[in-house]
Predict the structure.
Amino acid sequence: MLVDTVAALCEAEHLDVDVSVASKLAWSAMQGLLVLHPTMLHLDELEGREPASREELVMRFNRILVDGLRAHRVSSGR
């Protein structure tokens, strides 16, 4: 399902990326967030920052991932 979503994004946005690699990046980022979120909360506490919820971090991570993928848009000259 994730591969299909990434493939659809790449097609819709005309992105020149390896769908398999991009899917694995997204998967590992979200898996890492799930595993590391308690540690991230602790680090926020130590740094005196307002801790971000898991849902908020998912949104932020996804925005960065999608924006990064969009940097690989196929130029119209191809």
